[in-house]
Protein 1
Amino acid sequence: MTSFSPDGRVRPGVSGVSGVSRHRDGDEAWAAVGYLGVPFVSVAAPLAVYVARARSSDYARAHARQALNLSVTLALYNLCAVIVGTMLALDTVGVALAIALPATLALWLVTLAYLVKAAAAASAGEFYRLPGWLCATIVRERDPA
């Protein structure tokens, strides 16, 4: 079980992500790449990190899982924005652009801010839990058998 402080970071002295407090050299970079690749290649970056490092590093796997969850959630939010924009465009294109475009832009800016926070924490060897309203848990941690 992972213990977090009120600001979402793993508490020092308590076992870290997935019950593992140590990680190998390079895991921080892999974890940060998983987050920073989301704006550019969406699901591909965290999925690549997850596939490449899941078996060898609990640290990289946990960060890649969270980045993957965020990218899938963001794709669903974007799909909803397209649907709402299309429905509004049936009435007036100007109304659709005035509502859907700023809402989508705000979503992307907020997401980018949280991605940078999470990537900075990952490169520092910490875990930053993204808010539940932004990042739905789709890919879950496997239960140890």
Protein 2
Amino acid sequence: MSMKLERTEAAPRGPRTVVIDAYPSAALEYTDDYAIVAIDVIRATTTAVTAVACGRRCFVAPTVDAASVLAQKLDHPLLAGEIGGNMPFGFEMDNSPAEIAERTDIERPIILVTSSGTLLIHNAALSGHAYLACFRNVGPTVRYLATRYRRVAVIGAGSRGEFREEDQFCCAQVAGGLLASGFSAANDGTLEIVERWRNEAPDAWLRSNSVRFLRSTGQEPDLEFILAHRNDLDDAFRVEGSEVRRAGDADDLREEGRERVAGIR
């Protein structure tokens, strides 16, 4: 279902607020003190989070060309992804959380590029406070953000002009968790999405066109993987530059950098 969401500007200081939005360009609207949560359940954020959870370094690129440039800087990287539903020439694997979970070559960093998900992540990372969420880590993401930020934008990647059901559902879970933690909805559209999905069955999003695509192209293992992995991780995941890291690890690196600048290390 394609949706147009009203945006509401919040004061720099004030009550804690959360807003739901959609599409990669939306991430450029939220800067300054916003934390941005990028969500592309099928499949970019699920693949990226799964790669890091397996112990593999994960980098995201907004385009195939950017992925090729990044590949020159890494040792034997694994190029993965899709553009328009097709794996780009020279890539080794599709944008598949099921496949990345099964691979044993975890010493190889993955470079992921997708039609809309990695562009959203790239745009969100420009804020300096970008996080990834999927059904695997909703709870940890909510808990991490609730104690660190006053303004949070939860953004679904969308696909082919649609804010798809799986992303709406995940956005609603993250935003709903923040509302339960004392945040307020920044606008009526945010509250509407949270309420729409609040009492739905966990698999209500299966009517999505993304699900139809996976089924029609023989990629059911990814759908089965997503259905089988819900809130099974204990970490929030943050983007530092183009690399996805566990949020605690990223915080440690940022602190080390501050200490070096201050001459402590």
Protein 3
Amino acid sequence: MPKIEFILPDGEDLYPINTVGISSEPQTARNYVPREYKDLSSFNNNDLRDPSVKKCMPFLDAMTAGYIIPFHQDYIITIDHDKKEIQVHTKLIKPMFHDSKQLPKNYQDGDKLVGKFSNKWIVKTPPGYSCLFMHPVNTPKTDFEIISGVVDTDEYDKQILFPYYWRRYKTEGKDQTILRKNSPMVQVIPFKRESWTSSFGIKKQRPDVSKWAGHYMDVYKKVFWKKKKYD
């Protein structure tokens, strides 16, 4: 079974390890299932004909895929909308920034403010494996959104920094919030690099419906779904 490693650098590389410590370690994403999802009823109004998203296995599989790197410190974020500036205050590691001019003007939230979260972990995967780093999937809306990226973590041996958009947006004045230590920062999904081809066509043969005929609920889970494992 492939193994992903989250490693603290030995010595004062980018961050002072003796100050930051070993806390806030990455965990499997299933340990970060939001309370809002756990408390959600499987059926709306207790009607078995009206399932909620809690019965959707693809939704859960995406939310629990891979691992979560949490924030290792509190971030107090102050947005000055008049000056179009992000002010970040922390106790341990100084914040870093991207200039929004690096992005095309019409690229998603390219007109909004862009920052960069620090990360103390080196992520290593076996040869031939990379990682997709992205905003935590199917979680409650946050004030920020991680800008996704793929890193060849079998070769790259440095800490990866995570740029983000600031999503909560006003036209004027100041806006302030706090991002708490140990809350989810970024989702990490390792995958094997492979070359793919594609084809297109029309399926003339009628599908075999015998496997799912007669089932009213949980058809995908009972017939098609396969368990995924991240430890």
